[in-house]
Design brief:
- The structure is a homodimer of 190-residue chains.
- Chain A has a 5-stranded parallel sheet, with helices on both faces.
- The model of chain A has no long low-confidence stretch (mean pLDDT 94).
- By secondary structure, chain A is of the alpha/beta class.
- In chain A, α3 runs parallel beside α5.
- At the A-B interface, α2, α3, α4 and α5 of A face α2, α3, α4 and α5 of B.
């Protein structure tokens, strides 16, 4: 049986979300992994989705996560210095299940540097204008994210995305991450 | 035995993080809940913390999460339209364990409205300047967050923070959330 990977990421917000998802599934297949998308992108939402529609997607995604062996999480920053919160939620879900957490990103700078740049702070600032601390552990995002990757024996792979592609898809880092994930044996107990 | 609550939030980044944490523990105690902070704030970090220090905090937090009955998660937006990713990771961790997820926030506007305001978009915008979708389910954040609260029979409580307090602490919403959490019986199976 092939390992089944949950393909998490802000990719669902891309204009060509379905094409990106299918391309990632094809890359997984070439490396012996079955990729699954968190929601059926071929099944369009109503024009004005309701909270109940959102809760139904949550339940479907949670059931799919429990059925997958590992997560391939796109942790490219999204509208902030940090990763997309939907993806981060899913990373926490897999970490609690003790299943391998693989992360990839097109952001190659560190978290503290990205945070200071986004907030317009000096390169040595330790707090922002509100007095809130700048987390600086020389890690790629909030410590809980790379912590989960390390604790579950996954890998965090950052690669610059080639020009012409939306960096949010992080296709280059994705393929490197799939190659890394394909090297491990299943089942894995973290 | 009192229920033990994991007190998650970007509170750790406040200038008076330890005082805020102690105040929240005291509020919990008044309502019959034992509040636990995700890291020992009384135990200061080295001046230049390393990735290994970050991973040690991760392991301590993960062990503490497994020992707690529920999470009280401060999902007040942090440097973005969404909640702090460290807190969101912990919410996903509790959701996977099937333990009650209670959320509180000082943000009383909806997620889509906050996102458009932060990005300077029109009130009816469906995509941002990069073409990325604005999630709009009439929910308080990315659907996975309120989805987890609903699926684990928790509650999401938003209250305006009184003037003079840092809205990031969300003290008013916190006390309302503790009152709600104190009404449930333990053990709970979600």
């Amino acid at each position: 049986m092939k390992p089944i990977a949950y393909l998490a990421g802000p990719d669902v917000f891309l204009p060509d979300a379905l094409a990106v998802g299918r391309a990632k599934i094809a890359i997984c297949a070439r490396h012996g992994i079955e990729g699954r998308l968190p929601l059926d992108l071929a099944n369009p939402l109503p024009a004005r989705p309701t909270p109940a529609d959102g809760h139904a997607i949550y339940r479907a995604n949670a059931a799919l996560m429990r059925a997958c062996h590992l997560i391939l999480a796109n942790l490219t920053p999204f509208r902030s210095p940090s990763a997309d919160v939907g993806t981060v939620f899913e990373l926490g879900f897999f970490a609690a299940m003790g299943r391998p957490c693989f992360a990839y990103s097109s952001a190659t700078r560190g978290f503290a540097e990205r945070t200071r740049a986004m907030l317009g702070l000096a390169p040595d600032a330790t707090r922002d204008a509100q007095g809130h601390e700048i987390e600086a552990f020389n890690l790629p995002d909030n410590l809980m994210l790379p912590g989960a990757v390390a604790a579950t024996h996954g890998q965090w792979i950052a690669r610059d995305e080639p020009p012409g592609l939306d960096p949010l898809a992080a296709m280059a880092a994705f393929e490197a991450c799939v190659v890394a994930a394909a090297r491990i044996s299943f089942p894995v107990t973290a």
